[in-house]
Amino acid sequence: MSCGLILFFQSGRPLGAGVRLGMGLRMNRTKGDEEEYWNSSKFKAFTFDDEDDELSQLKESKRAVNSLRDFVDDDDDDDLERVSWSGEPVGSISWSIKETAGNSSSSHEGREQLKSRNSFSSYAQLPKPTSTYSLSSFFRGRTRPGSFQSLSDALSDTPAKSYAPELGRPKGEYRVSYSIHWFDSFHMLFCQVCSLERFRSLQDKLQLLEEAVSMHDGNVITAVLIFLKRTLSKEILFRELEVRQVALRHLIHFLKEIGDQKLLLDLFRFLDRTEELALSHYREHLNIQDPDKRKEFLKTCIGLPFSAEDSAHIQDHYTLLERQIIIEANDRHLESAGQTEIFRKHPRKASILNMPLVTTLFYSCFYHYTEAEGTFSSPVNLKKTFKIPDKQYVLTALAARAKLRAWNDVDALFTTKNWLGYTKKRAPIGFHRVVEILHKNNAPVQILQEYVNLVEDVDTKLNLATKFKCHDVVIDTCRDLKDRQQLLAYRSKVDKGSAEEEKIDALLSSSQIRWKN
Amino acid sequence: MAFPHRPDAPELPDFSMLKRLARDQLIYLLEQLPGKKDLFIEADLMSPLDRIANVSILKQHEVDKLYKVENKPALSSSEQLCFLVRPRIKNMRYIASLVNADKLAGRTRKYKVIFSPQKFYACEMVLEEEGIYGDVSCDEWAFSLLPLDVDLLSMELPEFFRDYFLEGDQRWINTVAQALHLLSTLYGPFPNCYGIGRCAKMAYELWRNLEEEEDGETKGRRPEIGHIFLLDRDVDFVTALCSQVVYEGLVDDTFRIKCGSVDFGPEVTSSDKSLKVLLNADDKVFNEIRNEHFSNVFGFLSQKARNLQAQYDRRRGMDIKQMKNFVSQELKGLKQEHRLLSLHIGACESIMKKKTKQDFQELIKTEHALLEGFNIRESTSYIEEHIDRQVPPSHCSRGYIVLLSLTSVVPDSARCSLDTHYGPEHLLTFSNLRRAGLLTEQAPGDTLTAVESKVSKLVTDKAAGKITDAFSSLAKRSNFRAISKKLNLIPRVDGEYDLKVPRDMAYVFSGAYVPLSCRIIEQVLERRSWQGLDEVVRLLNCSDFAFTDMTKEDKASSESLRLILVVFLGGCTFSEISALRFLGREKGKREFIFLTTAVTNSARLMEAMSEVKA
């Protein structure tokens, strides 16, 4: 509850622009409509923004419930499920597996304990096995060829026997209604695959495939394709599949799954699907762990027939990884040497290898902000190399420097000098965003205040200032707007006897100001 | 609140039977390997298994130790190893490595692989290639329907989405058909069938074939469920991509509900431990707020808290006897309620905290603007800025780009923002999104025709072939607006949209948008056919894949005709479930039952499209 989570139900009061659209409400079509919509009293807003001057129902309910806890908690064990350290209910299968993994040589005693702690009952509403309930009436008992025969004895005294749980039809009974001939073939197919060997002419093979496709069962289609792949030259197979899209997709998926990359690439080449060919080749890099090998592999991808747009990305991917390898080696060294302050104060949480560009930029703004443009790890260099848009760069740099509480850097980020040498504050992302990001990084009020003041739109400014408790900004803005009522209302929100209150009182009693209300 | 118990609602079929069935079948399969054995379970099967069995049941059937299937050498010393896995190639390779290591060490053990829900031929092929075919015995555990709630059945197959809608692999269609067959065996035939989508049609045909083969088995049974509606996820991607604002959906978006339960971390439980909580109709507090718009939830919770306080306060003037009564009869219930209440309050708090940080407000506003098709430029630049501000980048903004592309056009500048953000691999993800028809890019008119003519040259088997992705996705883009208009998906606002007393399904998106999928279902059920919806069907590129099938003889009781099973192929969201629950209540005492390949949301859809290492 530390962040003062509050909900509020509002009746009719127009909120500031940023927060006004309630989740419970439709957006309206025109601005005029919207105003009317917000000012009419029948709308109730529900929003996801905090605002801690409203009474929170949730807070209240929580208090109510918590106040009962003392009374309730004494002997709660029978109600609460027992949960192990990992959050799994004790006795559940998932929990038990973790136990085995934890101490694989678990003693007999341990297992006994486990058994006795088995408190599944509180967890699920499992019906007790009822032996009277026989499902056998629904299912014909079937025997499968082979392995099942000898087992009936073993089952003689378990209740399971009567259930004859052969629900899924044995695949051997796959029947195609077309003809006895086809029934036979599929029967054979699933009993003993070698019987497919009698489909020797191309015509038979293709008919087999077409029947499989018309059955809609992907498993059967794949089975036939595996047979065709084995008994046809790939040129013939590819040629026939080119005009049979459904089967073709099955073959492609099958090849992907079993990892027959070579045949897959041949297939794409045959089909003249150059882009898929390139992507499929490129995909392989995911399986290469070693960064240097991965880099070398990516090099082979450059120049493959990707779409124009993708080509550029492949080049960037290679360049980025190349960079990351250099930065990683360098920084790991610096970190372990322990001489550099930034790495001592903020040890790296993970390696930078294979991270997206924006993360790399953040990293470099965090650890290498002041470096000259010439180094590989400097943010400016990254920005230039990868043509990162200004907005994106500023957002990322701001987030990184704010996290380090380097307010001077933040300041510099938005300061521009014109040709006369005057400085001016400018933010490509808008100062309202700057304020939000600073707030998220727990910037002190003085800093926040400075940037809230730079927000141009008065409503937004007032709104942000109120939200982040920048009292001075609120007070000054009200004064500038000559809005006595709002100032009066704000007085109740500042602490009693504080400097702010004094300031408000002074303004309210001032005769210099010509209030508009 | 919105969905109190309705005495007029038809009674739901008893789906707990499915759990018993699955458990009994598993026990049967375990008994096929008599004696002590270690069981290796695939991670994705652990939660579903937890729903139907527990450790002591496994122990009763001589399972000694449990291991997770992961890429590590097994430490098991047992003489018998049993593997419970999804039919995946990588699992086969793992098993093969264990078996072959044993062989090298001159060790002989018994191995059994239980595939759930079915085995694939490709898996057996790998076993054969690895030289262990015959050393391991294979079985199938047809556990494909897990009742997550009284009205929700999940196949727990999130991979269905990627396999079918991205790769075009139809391997799960048979699984769906088998599941439907099982349902009709248990709960009687479905007199009225409707469907839309290519996959829906195929699943339906395969299912019909199964029924015909076993004719007689379901005949004569009275139908318990009067209608079934099959729907492909790609008929409506937009709804699945929207941020959810009904409570259950929001909990799913924020904490991820996995297999009907959620892990509430310390920030929710306000203690140092995490808690795994089952979220279903048995949770009395949850059941009353799950379908509510989030803005109503607090009011409800605070009312509840006050009531609870009052209940406890009663004990204050009690004499000994009354106190004894209170403790023995009411205290337990109150304590339970107290526990649930504090959990959900904690969850709400945590949701608020997280959403406030994400500028949820602005995002929702932007999303609604996209759905309604106005202020597109502002929305686009907001999305760009939103992406720019993400350090580290998050998956959810990718969802916004996709939503943008489905409802209008993605400008180059937005692409540029994405490029810097999603790491180099985004290229692969984007190519996947394009292939699945989720991402469409600006293409001048002539490019479109060029693609079209190139495509039509390739497609020869028109009956089976949907025109390839490139074309259909390009066509799809421009259609959302038109479909939205035809089906009236954006309700006109005249006055306040009162979220406390919703008037249509749009309430699940704050009154801004009626989920397309649900609207289609509503319209078809109303007409009991696709009549008059030709234009919509055409716009959805589903002209060949919209079907109805009604049985002539009317054995169906009026009770059963009020039950509708909706089958979502490729996943459904909690928002859609809430919307249809609402519809059922509004439109004459009906009740919807949901069968989905998995519960999904925007983040899951996006993750399913990303490429990871093999």
TrEMBL record, chain A:
Intracellular or extracellular location(s): Cytoplasmic vesicle; Early endosome; Late endosome
Top-level lineage group: Eukaryota
Keyword GTP-binding: no
Annotated Polar residues bias: 116-125
Pfam (any one): Vps16_C
GO CC annotation: early endosome; late endosome
GO biological process terms, semicolon-separated: intracellular protein transport; vacuolar transport
Domain Vps16 C-terminal, first and last residues per copy: 202-301
Keyword Amino-acid biosynthesis among UniProt keywords: no
InterPro entries per UniProt: Spe-39 (IPR040057), Vps16_C (IPR006925)
Keywords: Cytoplasmic vesicle, Endosome
Region of interest: Disordered: 99-125
Protein name as annotated: Spermatogenesis-defective protein 39 homolog
Automatic annotation (TrEMBL), chain B:
Keyword presence, Protein transport: yes
Matches recorded under Pfam families: Sec1 (PF00995)
Membrane topology: Peripheral membrane protein
Subcellular location field: Cytoplasmic vesicle, Clathrin-coated vesicle; Late endosome membrane; Lysosome membrane
Alphabetic keyword roster: Protein transport, Transport
Record's keyword annotation contains NADP: no
Entry's family note: Belongs to the STXBP/unc-18/SEC1 family.
Protein name, per record: VPS33B late endosome and lysosome associated
Organism field: Mandrillus leucophaeus
Encoding gene per record: VPS33B
